[in-house]
Amino acid sequence: MNGSVRAPGRQAAFGFIFAAAVMNAVSFGLMIPVLPNLIRSFFGATSAASTASAADWQFIFGVTWGGMQFVSGPVLGMLSDRFGRRPVMLISIFGLALDFLVMAFAPTLAWLLLGRVLNGATAASFSTANAYVADISTPASRARNFGWMSAAFSVGFLLGPAAGGFLATISVHIGSFHMDPLRTPFLAAAGLCAINWVYGLIVLPESLPPERRIVSFEWRRANPVASLSLLRSHRDLLPLAGVNFLFQLAQQVLPNVFVLYTTLRYHWSLAFLGITFVITGALGILVQSFAVAPVVRRIGERGAVMTGAAAGVAGFLIYALAPSGAWYFLGMPVFAFMGLMQPGLQGLMTQHVSPMEQGRLQGANQSTGGIAAIIGPTVFPLSFAFALRAWPSVPGLPILIAAALLGLSLIVAWRFARPTAPRVAVA
Question: What structural domains does the chain harbor?
C-alpha cells in the first residue's frame, strides 16, 4: 500500500485535512484582536505615541509574515513532492505550536518578531494541505473539496477573532506564575496546534505514493523565484496564476481598511463590527460549503471562477459606494459569491500539473499570496489616507481599486481560463 491514501480512506483523510485547516485558521484568527495591543504593551501606557509606535511595528510584522510566506511556501511544497505530504504537514503543525509558545512567552519585541517569522514559515503548510486535497480528489469532487477547504479557512477566521477577544480577558495562574491576559490566546493557539499534531500523527495517511514523488529535492528550484518558473512552464498556468494573484491582492483591502472605513463612514461601533464579521463569514461559509459543487456541475470550474470574480466586483462596488450601512449590508450576499472563485481556480490549476508537481504548484501559489500580503498593507491604507486628504467625497477609493483588480482578473479568466482533459483519479 506504500502508506498512500486509497479510495476507502479518502473521506477520512479529507476530514483530517479539513479539521487541520479549521484549527490552523482558528489559531491565526485568535491573534487578530490581541496582537496589536500586545505589541503596544511593550511601549508602556496607552497613548498616541505608543499607538503610533505599535502601528509602525504592526507594519513590520505584517510585511515580515508575508515575506516568510513568499520564501517558505515553495520549499515546503517541494519537500512534500519529494518526501510526501504527511511528514511535511506534521512537522509544520508541530513547528506552529512551538512558534505560538515563543510568542506567548516573548519577553521583548525582538522575541515576538522571531515568533512571527517562524509563524509565517510554518503557516506555509497550507500549501501542503491543498496539495494533499489535489492528491485525493477525483475530477468530480475536486472543486467541492477545494470549496470546503476555503470554508475551513472562513470558519477559522470567523471563530478565531471572537475567541481571541474572549480569551484575552482570562488570566492564567500556575502556582506563583501569572500570565498577561493578552498572551492567553497565543497559549490557546499553541494548544490547538498540539492537539491537531497528535491527531494527525495517529490518523493521517500519506496521499502521495513513492512512485509519484520527485526523484530529488533541489534547492535551486525551491527558492521562490525559481518556483514561479513552474507557472511559466505550462502555457495555460501562468494566466491562472495571474488571476489568483489579483484575487489575493484584492482580498487584502478589507483586512486593511474595513474597520477604519466603516467606523468613519457609517459610525459603526466595535460591537456592531463584530456582528458584521459574523454575518460576512457565515455567508461566505454557506457559499463555499454548499454552492460550489452544484455551480461547478452546472457551469464548470471556469464558470465558477468568472461568476465569483463578477460577484466580487459587484460586491466591492456596493461596499465602496454605499451611502449608508443598510446599502452596505445589501452588498454582503452578493460579495459572498466571490467564494466560488478560489475553489474554481484551484480546480483548474491542479489540472495543468502532474501529481509530482502538486506541492510545488501550491508552494508557488503560497508565494504569490505572500507577495499580495506584502503589497496589500501598503497600497490600501495609503490609498485610503490619500482619499481622505485629497478626495474626501470618495472614501471608498481603496475598495474601488480592489474592484478594478478583480475586474482585471475577470477579463484574464474569460480569455485564458480553460480546463484540460479529465485526469485519472489518484487511487
Answer: 1-204 (1.20.1250.20), 223-420 (1.20.1250.20)
